[in-house]
Amino acid sequence: MTRPLVLTSLVTLSICACGHASTSQQHNTAAATPPARAAAAQQQSAPPTGTAAATPQSENEQAAAAQETAGTGDEDRAPPDRSDVSLEHLAALPAAAQLPAGKWKPGVNYDVLTPAQPTGVGPGKIEVVEVFWLGCPHCYALEPYVEAWLKNKPSYIDFVRVPVMWGPVHRAHARLFYTLQALNRSDLFEKAFDTIQQQHNPLISTTGDDAESLKLQQDFAKANGINPDDYAKAYNSFSVNSNLQRAEQLTQRYQVQGVPLVIVNGKYSTDVAKAGGPQQLISEIDDLAASERKH
To answer: Helices in 198-277 by DSSP H: which ranges?
Structure first.
């Protein structure tokens, strides 16, 4: 991908995320207890185990979530559970578990997730998850920084992309992402991103027709050396459906309200706005991961 880093202006504090606005409601889930940010835990009683993230109540809300947004500050995000008071929570941690004083402030530059969520990495590894959406221009603007970081990231960091699962549009793009993975063609991830963002070709049905989405993606696959029949098999495979289910659980578990969102080792969440910019976000990821490795 050859997008210049001057795209910084697209991911500064003024336009930093694709957001998901919804009305909170409770439902049961078999996933781990969703985290509550430390500030919210101090301001109100913790949510009961099994309380999942808010979900849209209507098709209109789902359609609104699918729109590309470019507001100011954090207005693209759901506001209820973010605050700067979580310094009190971190102060209770042992000194070895805290970040260097004055560099990154909890509740300002990142949120502490309580309870911490399980990760899928082995001993000695630190998991860094990016929750994203192929239709999000802010995720696309961050991508050059992520690409550059991946070439030199510490070997103990396991980086995982997880597509957000707010509604039908996001699910359709997530299926494209996981189908390419199932075909061992993750090399086409960037090309699919370019096609959606630069060519304004969503590679999915605008009416929610799954058969049409499959046909559009088969055409893309064929143009890139993949047999359309092989693509269809992977598209409907058990592994792809399992990955979609896991992405749904993670979207709920981390109560994702805006993308791109970064989760470090199931304990900290941050984003471009909180870090102060895309390059600062990369630096913060490294520091949070290094801090986790020490204890």
So the answer is: 210-223, 228-235, 238-253, 272-275
